[in-house]
Structure formats: structure tokens, C-alpha cells
């Protein structure tokens, strides 16, 4: 890609585009996505309709928005099990804050952003301060948030869901930003798809072309080496957790403004979907390797699978099995592809 | 003779009641290699940590370019031009060579949200700097983990040189390497010396030391067991001093055997067997 390419080395056989592709982390996911696409094209008649595609894209985007920061975090070598319920926390907070204060909903949205970022900061701070595994730290946050979500919602509104805020000031403009949709012909496109694509683009830019991106790879691939070369390891880790929080806020606001009420028990288990999307997309569980684009492809596979089963008129009970099998296959394919690519280079 | 870049005089270091280093003197000038030899536990790591700024010495003087100093931390050592390459090399195996080369000190272009890595410059510089050290890398995009141990060591040295090191401290650069690889690394150590750097080479291998060293400091049980210049000591004598005492007969026997096998392999199988012997008799 550099303009001033160095003279070709005779020991280096010209690398074909195919082989260069094989070296990309997201290749396994792309192959998997193509396979799933072809599979459902035959299994479900209505799968290839444009309206189906928009549904697939929508469910892909709801997972994908969170899969992006979770992928970055995994490249940085950490997990966040609290990501799923954090989305709900963020939605609950902005809804209940606005309702209780009878303020413009934008006030709630803003305060919710601060609170969610604080939760992310807490995760990162506890991790770097205690040096405990992120699995334990965020498992703790996960349980605490699950409890707080239910407890506070019942305490404040008496039920397990929040009160409607649809008639409050600022609702329509917030809805336009977080939950609008357009009709293009017979196809309905939701704004989350734009959020998702934008996040993927920004994350890819950060990863591949900024110092912070270099640091994320280094922190995940060799924290000691990173520290020795002067990389701000603590700041990078905390930043990654705050990135997860930022996207949890976006997701949470989407849920709030598209459904108007928020169920306080939601979000549990979603953290695994984000991790699955990231892993299918080529992120190594051990850190130091992966891509944001891969996570998007992983989320797209999720969208196709979850809706494809419905279009094929199968019992959706099978979905989880399908997802698990996909995860295993994708990981195996990733490992195989990477081994081949490395053996050749 | 110009002022030595680094000069230690009568340096001691205590860890509580343990005397890790006692009255050690050492100097290295520009374009010179000073070898610090010693068996395991002789105090080599303590010495390295003092020069690298990780520990402070408790007695004696530490001069950098003639100016007495106490280094507060590794950053201070770096700022004074002392770069240390540890055994783990501080590289991230999965990252490409060029990203590793600039890790922690990445050059950028643009400003604000468009501040980005100067990728072309980074690749170009990595290739050029490695070439300058005589390392002709096949591809700067390959993960550094796919390089051989010797090549990785060389990248770490080249990185230290590029970022303005005046003194290079190398901690056992040939310890985990095969014979050929060791030779390659020693060549780059010599290249760094020829580029005008002062090099402190820590090793327990007298053969490697004698190949490149200008001065030799022998450590034994935390104290100096000898200090020599290249002219004043032969390889045999250096090995004898390092091994010493009861191990001497066994070792000279080992060396004779190698001398018969031909002069082409001065750093042949001997180092391995010699250090094996050290391990078994310790």
C-alpha cells in the first residue's frame, strides 16, 4: 500500500491476492458467511427477498454494534461478561432518570452516557488495579448489574419494566437518532445499520492506522513487552472497557427509543453473542489478533442464522444448537486457515 | 582516549543483608565492546539493572560521559542514551516487524481525529534500519514471531540503535541461540560497535565474548574476579579464569578435543558442552 514500495526481494515469491486474503483474520468468517447464505438460500424460499435481507441486517446490527468494541477488547486480551446487561442498564437509566426528573429525555440520555462510561471505567480500573482475570471482574459486574437492573426498576416503577416516556419532550428527536427507519421501496432500513457500519469503520481505522490501535494489539499480544517499550498499558485497557460502555450506551438508547419501555431483565446472555461474533470474525481468545470487520461478518452470520431458521419455518428451539455448531466450525476453520497461511509465508 | 560513555567505579549493591555486587568497576567507550562474564548468580543481572536504571547502586560512582549520575528509572537511562535489550526482547510475536519496531514510539501524521500512523515511513525506516545493520529482512509485514531467535534479537538491537542509543546493554543475547544464530547476532553486535556505539555485552560464554570484546570484566559471586583488555588475555586464559578451580581440568580436556576437530569452528560445539558442564558441576 505504500507508494514507495521497496525493491522486490528475490527470496519472496510474489504473493498472490489469494494468499494475502488467506492471511486476513476475517477470512474464515467470510467463508462461513457465504456458506450460511447459500445454505439458507436453498433451505428457505423467502430468505433471498429484499425484505428478509433488511431483517437480517437489522438483527445483525443489534449484535454487531456491541461486537465491534468486544472484538477490540478481545484483541486487547480481555473479556467483558457485563456487556449484555450493561446495554439494559444504560437503557433503564436514561428512561427512569428522564421519567423521575420529568426532564427532557436528552438529559436522561446524556446522564446515562456518563453512568455507562463510568461502569466501563470501573471494569477497566478494577482489572488493571487488582490484576485479577477480566473473567472474574466482569462476571462480578455482570451479576451486580443484573441485580441492580431488576432491583432499581421494581423499586422505582413497581414493575419489572419502565414507564412509557413516549409523550415526553425530546423523545421524537432522540428516536430519530437512535431508532429511526426508512422505507426504500419495499425494504425497511433501520438506523442501527448505519451506526453499526460507522462503528466498524471507526474501529478499523483505530486498529490499523492509529497509535492506539498499535497499543491494543501490543497489550493483547504481549503486555510485558508493551510496557517495556513505553506503551500506556493501563490507559489502553481502561479505554477499551470504556469503548464497550460507549457502544452499550448506543445499543441501550436504541432499545429504549424503539420499544419506548425497557424490560429490566433483558440483556442476560447477550454478552456471549458478542463474543461469539468476535470469535467467528477471527479474534483469538488469547488476544493480539483479530479485526473489527471480522466481528461484523460474525454478527451478519448471527443475523442470517437467527432469521434464516424462522424463514425456513423450523422450530426456533434449534437456533442455539445451530449457533454453537457455527462457533465451533468457524473457530476450527480460522485455526486451519491461519495455519495454512503461516506455513506458506 | 576520550571520556568513557559509561564508567562504573567500585560499585556495590545490597539487597537487605545480601551483598549482590561488591566493588565492581567497568567502563565502555564509543566504538567499544565491554564484555561482562560470569556464571549464573555472579551478579550479572544486578549489574545490568544498575546500568539500565532499574536499581540504584549503594556505593561507588556511576558516570555517564564523565558526569556522575544516579538513574531514577529506566526512562532516565533511555533519555541518557542507554538502551537495554533484555532476554525476552520486548517484542510482541503476533505483530508485524514494522509495528514492533516502532512500538511505543510510533510516528504519526495529520492532526486531531485524522492523526494517524505514518505507515509508509514506518515500513521504509524499519527496512532501511535493519538493512543498515546488515539484516536483509524478507518481509517487514511478517509477524515477528515467525523470525528466528537470532533475527528477533537483531531487530531488538536495531530498534535500540534507531532510537538514539549511545550505549547498548545486551543481556545474554546468545544464550538461547544455536551456533550459527549466535554468530549472526555477534556480527550485529560488532556492527553496532562500528556504528559508534558503546556495547556492554553480558554473557556466560567466553568464546562469544572473546570473538568481539575489547574489554572483559569477570564477575564471581558478586565481586570482580578480573578485568582485562583484549591484548592482555587469550581465549584459553579467559576460559580458565571463568571456569577456575576444580572445573579447570575437565574443561581444558573439553577444549583440547575441540581444537583437534579443526580451527573452522572456534565457537563450535564447545560453548554448549562447556555450559552443560557448568550446570552439572554447580
Distance between the termini of chain B: 41 Å
Summed up, the domain count of chain A is 1
Oligomer: heterodimer
Strands in their spatial order, largest beta sheet of chain B: 6-9-10-3-11-12
Sheet with the most strands: spatial strand order of chain A? 1-2
On the 0 to 100 scale, the average pLDDT of chain B is 80
Number of strands of chain B: 12
CATH topology of chain A: ABC transporter involved in vitamin B12 uptake, BtuC
Category from helices, strands and their pairing of chain A = mainly alpha
How much strand content do the residues of chain A show? under 5%
Report helical residue fraction of chain A.
Answer: over 70%
Characterize the largest beta sheet of chain A: strand count, sense, and whether it forms a barrel.
2 strands, antiparallel
Number of helices of chain B: 10
Membrane topology (chain A): Multi-pass membrane protein
Transmembrane segments (chain A): 27-44, 56-74, 105-125, 132-152, 187-208, 238-259, 271-289, 296-312, 318-337
Keywords (chain A): Cell inner membrane, Cell membrane, Membrane, Sugar transport, Transmembrane, Transmembrane helix, Transport
Protein name (chain A): Xylose transport system permease protein XylH
Amino acid at each position: 500500500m505504500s507508494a514507495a514500495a521497496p525493491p522486490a526481494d528475490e527470496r519472496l515469491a510474489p504473493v498472490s491476492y489469494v494468499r494475502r486474503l488467506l492471511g486476513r483474520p476475517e477470512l474464515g468468517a467470510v467463508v462461513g458467511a457465504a456458506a450460511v447464505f447459500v445454505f439458507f438460500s436453498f433451505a428457505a424460499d423467502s430468505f433471498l427477498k429484499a425484505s428478509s435481507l433488511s431483517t437480517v441486517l437489522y438483527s445483525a446490527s443489534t449484535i454487531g454494534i456491541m461486537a465491534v468494541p468486544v472484538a477490540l477488547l478481545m484483541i486487547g486480551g480481555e473479556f467483558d461478561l457485563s456487556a449484555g446487561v450493561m446495554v439494559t442498564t444504560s437503557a433503564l437509566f436514561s428512561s427512569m432518570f428522564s421519567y423521575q426528573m420529568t426532564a427532557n429525555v436528552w438529559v436522561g440520555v446524556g446522564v446515562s452516557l456518563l453512568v455507562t462510561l463510568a461502569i466501563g471505567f470501573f471494569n477497566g480500573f478494577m482489572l488493571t488495579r487488582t490484576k485479577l482475570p477480566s473473567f472474574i471482574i466482569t462476571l462480578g459486574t455482570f451479576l451486580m448489574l443484573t441485580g441492580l437492573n431488576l432491583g432499581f426498576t421494581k423499586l422505582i416503577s413497581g414493575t419489572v419494566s419502565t414507564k412509557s416516556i413516549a409523550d415526553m419532550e425530546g423523545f421524537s428527536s432522540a428516536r430519530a437518532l437512535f431508532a429511526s427507519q426508512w422505507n426504500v421501496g419495499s425494504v425497511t432500513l433501520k438506523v442501527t445499520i448505519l451506526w453499526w457500519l460507522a462503528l466498524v469503520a471507526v474501529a478499523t481505522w483505530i486498529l490499523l492506522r492509529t497509535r492506539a490501535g498499535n497499543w491494543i494489539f501490543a497489550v493483547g499480544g504481549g503486555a510485558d513487552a508493551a510496557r517495556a517499550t513505553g506503551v500506556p498499558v493501563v490507559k489502553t485497557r481502561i479505554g477499551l472497557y470504556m469503548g464497550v460502555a460507549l457502544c452499550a450506551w448506543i445499543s441501550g438508547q436504541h432499545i429504549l427509543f424503539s420499544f419506548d419501555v425497557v424490560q429490566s431483565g433483558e440483556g442476560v446472555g447477550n454478552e456471549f453473542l458478542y463474543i461469539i461474533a468476535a470469535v467467528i470474525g477471527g479474534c483469538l481468545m488469547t488476544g493480539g489478533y483479530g479485526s473489527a470487520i471480522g466481528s461484523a461478518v460474525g454478527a451478519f452470520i448471527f443475523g442470517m442464522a437467527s432469521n434464516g431458521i424462522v424463514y425456513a419455518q423450523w422450530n426456533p428451539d434449534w437456533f442455539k444448537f445451530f449457533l454453537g455448531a457455527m462457533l465451533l466450525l468457524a473457530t476450527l476453520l480460522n485455526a486451519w486457515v491461519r495455519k495454512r497461511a503461516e506455513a506458506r509465508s | 582516549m576520550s571520556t568513557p560513555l559509561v564508567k562504573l567505579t567500585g560499585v556495590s549493591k545490597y539487597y537487605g543483608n545480601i551483598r549482590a555486587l561488591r566493588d565492581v568497576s567497568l567502563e565502555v567507550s564509543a566504538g567499544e565492546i565491554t564484555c561482562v562474564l560470569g556464571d549464573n548468580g555472579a551478579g550479572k543481572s544486578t549489574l545490568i539493572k544498575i546500568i539500565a536504571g532499574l536499581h540504584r547502586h549503594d556505593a561507588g560512582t556511576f558516570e555517564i560521559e564523565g558526569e556522575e549520575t544516579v538513574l531514577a528509572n529506566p526512562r532516565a537511562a533511555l533519555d541518557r542514551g542507554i538502551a537495554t535489550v533484555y532476554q525476552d526482547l520486548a517484542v510482541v510475536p503476533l505483530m508485524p516487524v514494522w509495528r514492533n519496531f516502532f512500538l511505543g514510539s510510533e510516528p504519526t501524521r495529520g492532526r486531531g481525529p485524522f492523526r494517524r500512523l505514518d505507515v509508509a515511513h514506518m515500513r521504509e525506516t524499519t527496512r532501511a534500519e535493519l538493512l543498515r545493520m546488515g539484516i536483509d529482512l524478507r518481509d517487514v509485514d511478517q509477524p515477528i514471531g515467525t523470525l528466528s531467535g537470532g533475527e528477533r534479537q537483531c531487530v531488538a538491537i536495531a530498534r535500540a540503535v534507531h532510537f538514539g542509543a549511545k550505549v547498548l546493554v545486551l543481556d545474554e543475547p546468545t544464550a538461547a541461540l544455536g551456533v550459527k544464530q549466535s554468530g549472526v547476532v555477534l556480527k550485529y553486535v560488532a556492527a553496532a560497535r562500528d556504528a559508534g556505539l558503546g556495547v556492554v555485552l553480558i554473557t556466560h560464554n567466553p568464546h562469544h565474548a572473546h570473538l568481539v570484546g575489547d574489554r572483559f570484566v569477570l564477575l564471581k559471586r558478586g565481586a570482580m574476579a578480573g578485568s582485562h583488555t583484549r591484548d592482555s588475555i587469550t581465549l584459553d586464559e579467559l576460559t580458565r579464569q571463568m571456569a577456575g578451580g576444580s572445573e579447570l581440568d575437565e574443561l581444558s580436556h573439553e577444549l583440547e578435543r575441540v581444537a583437534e576437530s579443526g580451527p573452522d569452528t572456534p565457537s563450535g560445539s564447545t560453548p554448549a558442552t562447556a555450559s552443560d558442564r557448568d550446570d552439572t558441576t554447580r
